[in-house]
Amino acid sequence: MKRRNFQTTVIRLLSCIISLGIAFPMFFYLNTNVRSLTLYVKPYDATNYQTMHTRTKPFDEQNQIVRQQKCTGCFSESIDLIINNEEICKPSNEYIDIIIMITSSPQNKLSRDVIRDTWLKHTKMNKGNIRYVFLLGESQMTKELEEENFQTVDIILGSFKDTYDYLIYKTMMSFQWATKHCRNAQFVMKTDDDVYVHIPELKRVINENADGGSCQHVASPLRDKRSK
Q1: Are 115 and 198 spatial neighbours (Cβ–Cβ below 8 Å)?
Q2: What Pfam families has UniProt attached to this entry (predicted)?
Q3: What CATH architecture is 81-207?
């Protein structure tokens, strides 16, 4: 009986010694290293998201890019067009429900052909009350795009590089074109060439909710350079 109690006591002591052997070095390491870490919370302002960083050095505000709220002269007020197709929404007194602006890339001819043969058939070859255009920029395939447009007559080609960083130019070009050449459209819709649009459902929604949607009355542009 005494031998069993002795063995139990020894096992308990060994367990305590092992636990202390593990816990003490961890405590010493954390106590030594964590003190050098400083939690920095950047104050929120209208031009940047609130960010939280773990830093070992004080925050250097001089390295931050200050972006102005009003961007006067940042973009050209008018984008020159290589291919215009200004006749798509004519005659100007004809009622058009929707003009669909489809962002595409020069190499995506297959995607354009597929949607021309599927949901764009509801446009009746751009003669119905729904019209569409494809939005593209310049590239090494500009000649091929001109040949494609000769057959389809549905491309708007802007005089800017067709790259990811220039997507904003496609958006600006679409609204400029719609404002100038498709003022008789009741709605302007922008989408991409990898999207399937259910035209009958779209028409039903705009007919039943002509005043739908929401408008941000108090908002400011996002000036974060990390955001597209």
Answers
A1: no
A2: Galactosyl_T
A3: 3-Layer(aba) Sandwich (3.40)
